[in-house]
Amino acid sequence: MGKNKEKDLGPQPLVNKKARFNFELISFIEAGIVLSGSEVKSLREKKANLTDAFAKIKNGEVFLDSFSITPYKNGGYANHPEIRPRKLLLKRKEIEKLEKQVKEKGLVLVATKVYFKDNRWAKVELAVAKPKKLYDKREDLKKSDAKIEIARAMKTKNYS
């Protein structure tokens, strides 16, 4: 087995599909996430919603907001709240670089993926992103519709 193999939540990581549609993703950064035991168990069962998750920088620390992890079914009294700010683990220089980009260029930090690295450590992939305008979204929809039409035409041509 090779080093740095990404082992994730079962066959696939938890992915934020809306991120690519609503934002122009510029660069990515991997961050650790501070979780309680019941949150880890729920995350391993893929009982989480990453759709509206974003990161904020407060007092030199990065927090992931609007990341919903469903309470663990066997958690009992030690269960966690579904939505709460979760601290992300980054190096100080990385945080300063992200803070500079967010403040100066008007960019945002969006969570794009959550997975387990080496089947042990919960990781979040953050994207430095620029919000898309409505006409950009329409253009993306036109491109994807065109690809689908081409694929259909090729499929019917091959059968004829």
TrEMBL record:
Subcellular compartments: Cytoplasm
The reply to whether Cytoplasm figures as a keyword in the UniProt entry is: yes
Task: Supply one GO CC term from the record.
Answer: cytosol
Q: Looking at the keywords, is Lipoprotein present?
A: no
Query: Which InterPro entries does its entry note?
Result: SmpB, SsrA-bd_prot, SsrA-bd_prot_CS
Highest taxon of the lineage: Bacteria
Keyword annotations for this protein, in alphabetical order, are: Cytoplasm, RNA-binding
One GO molecular function term of this record is: RNA binding
Q: Name one GO biological process term.
A: trans-translation-dependent protein tagging
Q: Which NCBIfam families match?
A: PRK05422.1, smpB
Of which family is this protein a member?
Answer: Belongs to the SmpB family.
Q: What function does the entry list?
A: Required for rescue of stalled ribosomes mediated by trans-translation. Binds to transfer-messenger RNA (tmRNA), required for stable association of tmRNA with ribosomes. tmRNA and SmpB together mimic tRNA shape, replacing the anticodon stem-loop with SmpB. tmRNA is encoded by the ssrA gene; the 2 termini fold to resemble tRNA(Ala) and it encodes a 'tag peptide', a short internal open reading frame. During trans-translation Ala-aminoacylated tmRNA acts like a tRNA, entering the A-site of stalled ribosomes, displacing the stalled mRNA.
Q: What is this protein called?
A: SsrA-binding protein
Q: Which gene encodes it?
A: smpB
